[in-house]
Design brief:
The chain is an alpha/beta fold. It has a domain of 198 residues: NAD(P)-binding Rossmann-like Domain (Rossmann fold), CATH 3.40.50.720. It has 13 helices and 14 strands. α1 crosses α7 and α4 packs parallel to α5. Bound molecules: NADP nicotinamide-adenine-dinucleotide phosphate.
Length: 328
């Protein structure tokens, strides 16, 4: 059978890397668009066998170049997303609303079999978050422009390549205590990146169209419990201290002056809302592909790097001799 061609935007990120591995192993050829071939091609091209990956450097708004790619594609997957706004047009509106709506128009014009777009869970509820509003507006435009589109709304996605568990483990190593926003009560349904990419492959291979699907893992876990589990996994004891909201917003105001902020005011507003299935839409389980991977078991596979002696630990490994000497 002739392999399908899948055009991927944002393929160098966490989800993209897992997805490229899944698709190419299953006889799907991928064309990955990146803004910087010099910085990203080594990450992209090592994810699949030669002959299955094409890498194209392009500005995501270069319509002439992108049209050419659509003319050879069967499916398009959009994984481009940002967590905070930056200069040079990198706004929530441009990235989450305008860009996906252009892709959806092209998907219709070039008669693609599907356009799979990664949105986010909980965006109907988070009415005061600019991130959520831009994702929701993007979804509406996509459905208008290409009604066959499949929109996936994942909860937080984790793996060794994430910016979530790995950042938390680094901070838990370095900080003397850890601040809890909203007392750590916000609920999440973390989904492992391999479960999510298995689900995207399932959508492609079963021709699942015209749906919004909430993609969640098998457990509902509060933020506080996620941090407690990570502390056990890296074998550290730290105080988790509820932070009063005015302080939290003040610190976010300062953080967001940095080029790569740890926390922004918009993220803090988003954190107020539980990130769990709304039951208004079908979930991955209801579509026939429940998540199989559990948080502790998966994070255990890479958390050793943050334990004593690990490459990201602040504590050096001491041999028995060294520690005996220190104790005398
Ligand atoms: N990770 C999660 O927990 C999570 C949860 C819910 C929803 N999502 C959504 O899922 C999608 C993929 O997530 P991810 O974690 O894989 O994302 P990611 O690792 O942050 O990266 C996505 C890719 O998007 C491209 N990109 C980023 N900023 C861009 C910009 N300003 N202009 C053009 N391209 C840009 C980058 O590709 P190049 O540098 O190669 O151009 C980047 O590798 C996003 O839409 C995200 O909102 C993720």
């Amino acid at each position: 059978m002739k392999p399908k061609n899948c055009l991927i935007f944002g393929g160098s990120g966490q989800i993209g890397r897992h997805l490229i591995r899944k698709l190419t192993r299953n006889n799907i050829k991928v064309t990955v668009v990146t803004r910087s071939i010099h910085q990203k091609s080594y990450i992209i091209k090592t994810q699949g066998n030669a002959g299955y990956i094409d890498i194209v450097e392009s500005n995501i708004y270069d319509e002439k170049k992108i049209r050419k790619l659509f003319s050879n594609a069967d499916i398009c997957v959009n994984l481009v997303g940002i967590l905070f706004e930056q200069k040079k047009g990198n706004t929530f509106y441009n990235i989450h609303t305008l860009f996906p709506s252009i892709l959806a128009k092209l998907a219709r014009e070039y008669k693609l079999k599907n356009f799979i777009h990664l949105s986010a869970l909980g965006i109907n509820e988070a009415v005061d978050s600019e991130y959520a509003k831009s994702k929701l507006e993007g979804e509406k435009n996509i459905i208008n422009n290409f009604p066959l589109a499949t929109i996936l709304r994942p909860s937080v996605v984790y793996s060794v390549d994430d910016n979530f568990t790995t950042n938390f483990m680094t901070l838990l190593n370095r900080l003397p205590f850890f601040p809890l926003y909203y007392s750590g009560r916000t609920k999440f349904t973390p989904i492992h990146c391999s479960d999510l990419s298995d689900f995207i492959y399932y959508v492609i291979s079963n021709n699942i169209n015209s749906k919004i699907v909430e993609c969640v893992g098998p457990e509902v876990i509060t933020l506080k419990n996620i941090l407690e589990r990570l502390l056990v996994l890296i074998d550290k004891k730290k105080f988790l201290i509820p932070m009063p909201l005015p302080f939290a917003f003040m610190s976010a105001k300062i953080f967001q002056l940095m080029p790569n902020p740890l926390l922004t005011e918009d993220q803090l507003r988003l954190l107020k809302y539980d990130n769990i299935v709304s039951k208004k839409y079908k979930s991955n389980s209801e579509i026939g592909m429940p998540s199989k991977r559990f948080f502790n078991e998966e994070v255990k596979k890479y958390s050793y790097m943050w334990r004593e002696g690990g490459q990201f630990s602040t504590e050096k490994y001491l041999s028995k001799n060294d520690s005996d000497k220190n104790n005398n």
